[in-house]
Amino acid sequence: MIVLITGAAGFVGSSIAKQLRKYSKSIQIIGIDNLSRKGSELNIQALKDIDCQFFHGDIANQNDVDALPKVNWIIDCAANPSVLAGISSSSLEVINNNLVGTFYLLEKCKRDIAGFILISTSRVYSISELNKIPLFASESAFSIKEAYPQIQGLSSKGISESFSTNSPISLYGATKLASEIIALEYHYNFGFPVWINRCGVIAGPGQFGKIDQGIFSYWVYQYLLDKPLSFFGYGGSGYQARDILHPIDLFNLLLQQLLSNANFEEKIFNIGGGVENTLSLLELDMICKEKINKKKVIQTVSENRSLDIPYYASNNDLATLKWGWRPTKSAHQVIDEIVEFSSKNVPFIKALQ
Q: Are 194 and 115 in contact (CB under 8 A)?
């Protein structure tokens, strides 16, 4: 089997490559990355060490994709993964990275008769509808109220695949949703397998950790480097909460998808930590104060930002039903791993700044 991983030098792509090599010495792994994200260059040697054939190229460049060897599967991890993408930077850049690149990869799948796995995002869900979810504030976090109106795709288990994807979802979310639709059309028209995984917040040791992507790692790094932090929005409470997914748990599903001949009607799956593995920023901050033993004062900004949401947790029931998949790493285990790794690798996290 020959597997191409896009965004291979990023946190998710490199993690998947390493786990794939641990699973099998015989699988041929090919990686491509444009190295646009600061820190990605630090993963190149690790990819070479696991015998991953690495290409410095851009999937938004047709010539770079066409020059790649023939493969059996593509796992598309390449993206500009920030919800602020297209606002704080060029809109054309996020469209090229997240949508045009997907088109060229799907054309390659058609030529190679290869399967396609898209690493998508929970950010395809409607911001306005997510903001309508009835929540209550505990001592440290928002949670879904036990009694709530009938909202399609919402239950006490979180957000399912049938939740609204109506705008606004951000330019980032729109490019990922469009990629999903195009990928499914290629599947239905040309017959090669396609799986789409809508991930919650992916976090773990070795993550680059930025304020707009990788918030859990970013928070730990700011503690270790003694840099300022702020709670933004929702009265500056820090109650906004997200579920956490370790890349090993993501890989466990991807491996099944690579090896299975399954042809489920369902092609889109929510993949996240779920309600039971959800942390608020305030809870994350309390963990950092305990684990890192620093009493940092957190600044507060009361006003909400336009793309913010107060709560998201993945309902993974469909993935459990079809694949028998459940996350194995708890939110606290993930944070513990980030703290342990970053405490031992301060030069690495300094290099990311």
A: yes
- Please state, for a pLDDT cut of 90, what percent of the chain lies above it: 85
Taking every pair of Cα atoms in the chain, the longest distance, rounded to a whole number of angstroms, is 58
Asked whether the beta carbons of 6 and 13 are under 8 A apart, the reply is yes
The mean pLDDT of 210-235, rounded to a whole number, is 91
- Asked if 116 and 267 count as a contact pair (C-beta separation under 8 A), the reply is no
List, in sequence order, every residue forming a beta bridge with 196; answer none if it has no partner: 118, 268
Question: CA 177 to CA 36: how far, in whole Å?
Answer: 22
Identify the pLDDT of residue 88: 63
135-140 CB contacts, 8 Å cutoff, 24+ apart: 135/310, 135/311, 137/237, 137/239, 140/239, 140/280, 140/282, 140/283, 140/286
Q: What amino acid is encoded at 25 in this protein?
A: K
- How many whole angstroms separate alpha carbon 171 and alpha carbon 142? 26
- Residue-wise pLDDT for 139-177, tens only, equals 999 999 987 778 999 999 999 999 999 999 999 999 999
For the segment 180-207, the average pLDDT, to the nearest whole number, is: 97
Q: Which pLDDT band, with edges at 50, 70 and 90, does 122 fall under?
A: very high
Strand, coil or helix: 235: helix
State the angle between helix axes of 215-224 and 281-292 in degrees (0 to 180), rounded to the nearest 10: 40
Q: Which phi and psi angles does 59 have, rounded to 5°? A: -70, -15
Q: What is the pLDDT of residues 244-267, one digit of tens each?
A: 999 999 999 999 999 999 999 999
HEC assignment per residue over 93-156? HHHHHHHHHHHHHHHHHHHHCCEEEEEEEHHHCCHHHHCCCCEEECCCCEEECCCCCCCCCEEC
User: Binning pLDDT at 50, 70 and 90, where does residue 89 land?
Assistant: low
CA nearest 154: which of 270, 245, 239, 267? 270
What tokens appear for 87 in the block?
């606002």
What are the E-state strand segments in 174-298? 194-199, 201-202, 230-232, 241-245, 268-271, 278-280
Type of residue found at 231:
F
